[in-house]
Amino acid sequence: MTDNGMKADDFLRRAAAEMADRAASRDAESTGERSMDRTVQAFWLIYGDAILARGYMTETEGWEFVSILKKRRGAQGEYREDDFIDDVAYAALAAEAASKAKHGTVALADKLTRKVEARARAKGVDWDNPQERERWLHGRTRA
Fold first, then answer.
1. 118 with 89, same domain?
2. What are phi and psi of 73, to 5 degrees?
């Protein structure tokens, strides 16, 4: 470590140690922590249809995603207080984001997505058609 903080290899060593610790306390030591697959499945089951219909993920849904991750981690292995404290914090942040959205104070990401949607509609894209929306979005990113 230098006076300027940790170096990349320091972060890598600490991350490896943390992963090993989590594997020992949460999952099988041979596989390590593997909570993301089920987290994504649960999130998609709850929010997937709305996200597909709308064409984007909201700030509220982003906070809900990390809340589900904390719930998943809290449900496996040894008790870790930070899983529950973090989940409460993420739920509060989701509530704040939902309140802002209801009262018209949406996050920058939501505003940008709505601008993209408006531009697509102005160009005649049927934004409500997921295939047409995807074709337009992918065509824009390649151009």
1. yes
2. -65, -40
- Predicted local confidence at residue 19, as pLDDT: 82
Same domain, 68 and 19: no
What total number of domains does the chain contain?
A: 2
- The answer as to whether 42 is a domain residue is no
The label of the residue with tokens 């300027």 reads 4
Residue type, 128: D
pTM recorded for the entire structure: 0.64
> Do 86 and 73 meet the contact criterion of CB atoms below 8 Å apart?
no
- Please state the separation of Cα 11 from the chain's center in Å: 23
Which residues form the domain of 71?
Answer: 47-142
Whether residue 25 lies inside any domain: the answer is: yes
90: exposed, middle or buried (Cβ count in 10 Å: 0-12, 13-18, 19+): buried
What ranges in 7-129 are assigned the alpha helix state H? 8-26, 36-54, 59-74, 81-102, 108-122
